[in-house]
Amino acid sequence: MASEDKSPGVEHRDPQYFGYYAMLQHQQNMLQDNVRTSTYRSAILLNGPRCFQDKLVMDVGAGSGILSYFSVQSGAKHVYAVEASAMAKKMDRLVKTAGQNGKNAFLKDKITVINAKIEDADLPIPQVDTIVSEPIGVLLFHERMLESYIHARDHYLKPGGALFPSKGGIYLAPFTDATLWTETMAKARFWEQSEFYGIDLSSLYQEAKTEMFGMPVVGHFDPRQLITTPTVMDSYDVDFATVTLDQLKDMTIPFDWVSGYTGLMHGIAGWFDLTFGPPPYHDTANLTPEQRNEMAGTTIDMSTGPAAERTHWQQVRFLFKEPLAVNATQKISGWMRCIVNDMRSYTIFVEVALDKSKLTDPATLDTSNTDEYTFIKEFKHDPLVRRGVWELHEQTYNYTYNPDMVQPGHQPEYTCLYQPDQTIMNDLMDSYQDFC
Ligand code: SAH
Question: Is the same domain home to 214 and 238?
Fold first, then answer.
């Protein structure tokens, strides 16, 4: 196996990363995410006849083994469960005792647990018909485990084999949240003090601001804080059947929004959805109706968006240091470039403009000096443009939103979003089009 097949830059994090997953409490946290676990179960059981019955299956990053057990329930002939952490030994105990004292008789002799990294050479695994995995982190790609999933596809999946999940879609949208912005600013302002026990801290204020605003905020939020609501048409798709390792290492997500309100944009929110479906994933146009029928299966989607049922992934928000004032119907354009870092995560660069001609080309981004990105350092401030850099692994949490506490009859102005009357909206839209 060539070394470039691996994911350089993640190995030094392995002890910490796999130490985390070796603990039952962290596996439990994922198992108890009912949206996640029941979606996987439905996808695997409903596609039993096509993708699992009498098939060879691999579970990449098996953890507690839940996806392997579902695969056996769905008729798999044999499952190869690869797990790098010491959780493999716990799973093995469950598998080895199958059939004893009437426990889990259905699993007996059906699963081989392999305590290794999927990237290790010479694993005792044949080519398989189907791969199941849950390699998903915050905003889909945090943790960089998607690279291991793609590695498994490239090395162990028979041509035309099935992938569960088969696709991920990333969604971005502008949001307003004056409270979150003010709380973040309050943390930075601590460093503005000139008389803290007689010491002037203020020379660190700018750095504190950069640090506090550079932390992605993970948590659920009220979907009514979105300034635009993306549709499936706006999703940035990551097709697990075709995406390459190189593509995963550097992704640019363009966006073009039309503001639904007049208000302050405090940053960009992100989430993802997952699609589980049987192959063929491509070139289906020329299939005969009989072939289509033969291939029939069930495709299932799961959303982690703010309006969907909660999952343990929650949503993520990237706060701007300087909010951006937008008018209803105004166009907000820009891009987010996500580049892998050696913290098993991504560094995220964003540029947003109310005048598209002011946008720079994301391909020209200079990331050479990672302490102080030239992208920010050389930015000449412009009232219509915002830039930001975030480290996706430097997450902070915000759990203030509780959907059960939301009063019915919410009006957008409660969150300082102002919606013109429909006639005014129409005029504004017209004038915008004239302008274009
Ligand atoms: N499949 C389980 C666990 C998902 S969490 C479930 O759905 O509940 C992801 C698991 O993948 C963790 O247990 C982690 O230790 C394992 N993992 C991550 N990268 C891996 C790699 N390169 N090789 C093998 N296992 C890996």
Answer: yes
Taking the model in full, what pTM does it have? 0.94
Ligand 1 binding pocket mutation candidate from 23, 85, 131, 245 (most atoms within 8 A of CB)? 85
Give 242-291 pLDDT, tens digit per residue. Answer: 999 999 999 999 999 999 999 999 999 999 999 999 998 887 777 787 77
Å from CA of 279 to ligand 1 middle: 23
- Indicate if 337 and 199 belong to the same structural domain: yes
Q: Which of 121, 141, 164 corresponds to the end of one domain? A: 164
Q: What is the pLDDT of residue 436?
A: 42
Same domain, 213 and 115: no
- Which atom number of ligand 1 is nearest to the Cα of residue 116? 24
User: In which domain, by residue range, is 343 found?
Assistant: 170-273+307-435
Query: What is the count of structural domains for the chain?
Result: 2
The sign one gets for the Cα dihedral 256, 260, 261, 264 is negative
* 27 and 131 assigned to the same domain: yes
Percent of the chain predicted with pLDDT > 90: 81
Q: Residue 143 has which token pair?
A: 């943790």
Structure tokens at 271: 């989430």
Task: Verify whether ligand 1 is closer than 6 Å to residue 118 (CB atom).
Answer: yes
Q: What is the DSSP string of 272-323?
A: EEEEE-PSP-S--TT--HHHHHHT----EEEE-STTSPP-TT-EEEEEEEEE
